[in-house]
Amino acid sequence: MDRVSRLLIGLAVGTLDPESFQLSSEEVEKFAPRVDELELHAHALHTLGPDQGGADTNDPTWRWRAELQRRVHQEAARNFRLDRQVREVASELRAQDIPTMILKGSAIRTAHPGMAGRPQGDVDLLVPEDDLDAAEAVLRGAGFTFQAGYQDREAYRRDHFHFPYARDGLVVELHWKPSGELPTGFLGRVWSEAVTLEESSGGKGSRGGEDSSHGKASSDSTLLTLAPAHRVLFSSLHISRHGFVGMLRWLGDLALELPLAPSVEEMLLEEVRSWDPRRIHLPFWLLSRWGRIVPASLTEPARPHSLEVRLLEGVLTELALGRSPGLVPRHRKVSALLAWMKGDGTLMGSVLRPGP
Predict the structure, then answer these.
(1) Is residue 312 scored above 60 in pLDDT?
(2) CATH class of 3-352
(3) Side-chain-facing half-sphere of 62: CA atoms under 13 Å
(4) Predicted confidence band at 214 (pLDDT cuts at 50, 70, 90)?
(5) pLDDT for the residue 311
(6) Which residues face 125 on adjacent strands?
(7) pTM, whole model, 2 decimals?
(8) Could you tell me if 24 and 30 are in contact, meaning their C-beta atoms sit under 8 angstroms apart?
(9) pLDDT at 180
(10) Disulfide check for 284: which of 8, 42, 57, 298 has CB 3.0–4.6 Å away?
(11) Are the beta carbons of 300 and 309 closer than 8 angstroms?
């Protein structure tokens, strides 16, 4: 692995020593575009910290870090405006007695306030399926329009688990499920174990190693978010569902959750029983290969055959970095990986199998 790739991974998952971070002018030219491409600005600043030392405008590292801070602060300001609009939408939904939960990027930023500048393209809101029609009516009444794209509403309802709505640049993905196929009873647990935003941002669950698996949401909550164990589970599923392609930022999000509080780990492992285990455990396995300390309970179920360890680490690293050198096309690697995560055959056999 080249030095730029090692730096990108170290900044994303927090294994880089900030004191040793130094770039030449030539490295900045290679490094900066990759940070932009992978949207790692907030993770890089989180790892390096805000202190740049004395100003030296001739130092390429100092100049890049100054630009990094500017970009993260700019994104944080944008997110502040986005969050204000989301709370307004949530208030309108709650006024109609529609429970509302934030998912994905918004949930991660809420749980980790130091990531306020994490880039976010849209907002994912979950409502009960029985309230979906009413929730759509609320959005339309607030000026949102359905973004049909290449499919109409009926096709979205049949083939997806969320509707896209937009207003003045704000895109809301209105979910009736947080993901595709769900184990029996899982969606009910997502709602029953939900926490309020205040509970999430206050450090419950995984943050700071505090031992609280969840905290039931109070009946007058205006906006809910996932319990820590469910937030971690969906982060892992998101990475695996996308075949790890370009997922370095999301792996950085997952690294933020470590170490898990014992009760969060226990709840996560209990939930994993209902899923394909490798889909949940493989991102943790990769983090451990990259130098993060991860409990064996989160990595062992994904451990490949000893002869395939280096192959799997190499393929996952290439995909996460958005690169796929070599003779095997990216789509073949992703297909092989998805098949292996379902427990079908060996990774090596799937990669080498003749195909388009």
Answers:
(1) yes
(2) alpha beta
(3) 8
(4) very low
(5) 87
(6) 102, 174
(7) 0.89
(8) no
(9) 82
(10) 298
(11) no
